[in-house]
């Protein structure tokens, strides 16, 4: 496979799955190269921000997800300070979970990004954009390297899992 | 005028007019060529494809896959047809334009007719 072909296939990942084949055919027929493929992809990636209602929904979801990244570690640190006096097994188990607050926040934020039905269908691409923006933010906010790595892995993983769950739920409600 | 029919944007209007013009062969490349040929302005490939997809999502167009061809690297064309709500949207948009054209200052109306 040539580098150009690889770049075209990579660009086509930005096109909705149901249109990918026909768009690839259109590009081949009109002799569009790598630049045309990426321009096409960018047009589709910009679609979530075209209508003001879609922009508003995306902004609300982004603020909520970013807010979780901020508020969960705050809550964890507050809890850890209060719970230090408890020595029982249950409290220690809770403390273990809360002792990685940035990773926990990344999971919660990812779940919200993937599962929220606030975004209309045409704005689906915005979910990936939000994950890509929040991922470095979550990693950089981590107090140590381990939590940074965990946050960078868990946020997209949680978003993907929750997204799968949302799609299955939507299919089930359509068939019901 | 149909009150509920959406008013189309400029490229949406051009695409929606190009589709029935091309009859059974309305796919992205042909729609783009048709607009370029008739208006002298060639919209980008991406703009046409995104607009076709958006109009289909709004229910103004319907699509089906054609047969794969060698010229397209074995990929099918997505062929579009105008749906009934698409006709209503065209009518509503053209009527709105007509309504706004009426009552213009005479010199502008004259200049627009040239």
What does this structure look like?
The complex is a heterodimer of chains A (176) and B (114). Chain A is mainly alpha-helical and 176 residues long. Chain A has helices at residues 3-12, 17-29, 34-46, 52-83, 89-98, 101-115, 125-141, 145-175. In chain A, α7 runs antiparallel to α8. Chain A is elongated. The model of chain A has no long low-confidence stretch (mean pLDDT 89). Chain B is mainly alpha-helical and 114 residues long. Helix content of chain B is 55%, strand content 9%. Chain B is built from five helices and two strands; from the N terminus they run αααββαα. Chain B has helices spanning 10-21, 28-39, 45-57, 84-101, 106-113; strands spanning 61-65, 78-82. A two-stranded antiparallel sheet of chain B has the order 1-2. In chain B, α1 (10-21) packs across α2 and α2 crosses α3. The mean pLDDT of chain B is 91. Chains A and B meet through α2 and α3 of A and α2 and α3 of B.
Outline the fold blueprint.
The complex is a heterodimer of chains A (176) and B (114).
Chain A: H1 3-12, H2 17-29, H3 34-46, H4 52-83, H5 89-98, H6 101-115, H7 125-141, H8 145-175
Helix pairs in contact in A: 1-3, 4-6, 4-7, 6-7, 6-8, 7-8
Chain B: H1 10-21, H2 28-39, H3 45-57, E1 61-65, E2 78-82, H4 84-101, H5 106-113
Antiparallel strand pairs in B: 1-2
Our Rg estimate of chain A from Cα atoms comes to 20 Å
Shape of chain A: elongated
Number of strands of chain A: 0
How many extended strands of chain B? Answer: 2
Global geometry of chain B: elongated
- The DSSP helix count of chain A reads 8
How far apart lie the N and C ends of chain A? 44 Å
What fraction strand of chain A? under 5%
Residue share in helix of chain B: 55-70%
Strand order of the largest sheet of chain B: 1-2
Low-confidence segments of chain A, ≥5 residues, pLDDT <50? none
Question: What is the structural class of chain B?
Answer: mainly alpha
Q: Which two chains touch over the largest interface?
A: A-B, 24 and 24 residues
